[in-house]
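We treat protein structure as text, and this decision shapes the records that our systems exchange. The tokens are whole numbers drawn from a learned vocabulary of local backbone shapes. One such record is reproduced below, unchanged from the form in which we store it:
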Amino acid sequence: MSDTLGLFAEARQVAIDLGYVIREEPLGDLPGGACQVGQERRILLNLEQPVPAQLDVLVRALAADKRAAAQPMSRLLAAWIHPGKPEA
């Protein structure tokens, strides 16, 4: 679980560094995800979901953002965001 919490914190910080606003709200059955409101990029996280599910939402949002590849991050997080990509 500590790896999950560490990855969650790191992924959250990478998203913030990319300019995303992270919103944590109860979303019922919805998992959350990335969206854009005007010029503001947001990632919605469902507070009712466990941390691993919230991490999955962050990873999917970062994987869809080409700018994430240029961000500094741990090898473990990079492997989650870009599975199958060889390490440098």
